[in-house]
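Table 4 source record.
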Amino acid sequence: MNSKIKNLLRAFVLMSLAPLSQADVLLKDTLGNTIPFSSLKGKWVLINYWAGWCKTCIDEIPELNRFYEKHEKDPVVLFAVNYDGLPLHKQKKLIQKFNIRYPSLATDPAFALGLGDIIGVPVTFVINPQGELANTLYGGQDLKTLDMEIGKG
């Protein structure tokens, strides 16, 4: 193999191994919108992983709805992510069934955002206004615990 091809391959491998910066991450919601993660700078970002078979996940949805509605005009965003990575039409059915009123992401951003492996649900990742992971909340959350998280900043 000539040296140009070797160098190109080496560059390609290095580029594919380099993690994306959060500024490059595009979040896609279930309505077809694309949200650049960089556009969320200056806001608290909460990403909640849930599943339709998880009782605790379902039980916390009304609290997450309350949190979302309370902070709709604040620099706070909340996203749902279906842990099972279901096809979009199945996700939409569950979103409607469980009355999830906050935005849902169609694709899992964990890898792109460097959140690590999601080993169980529910789990909520709290990202501060500087774009840094501030906390990982395991188990069901309520309005009070979520308000405490964003009040830390």
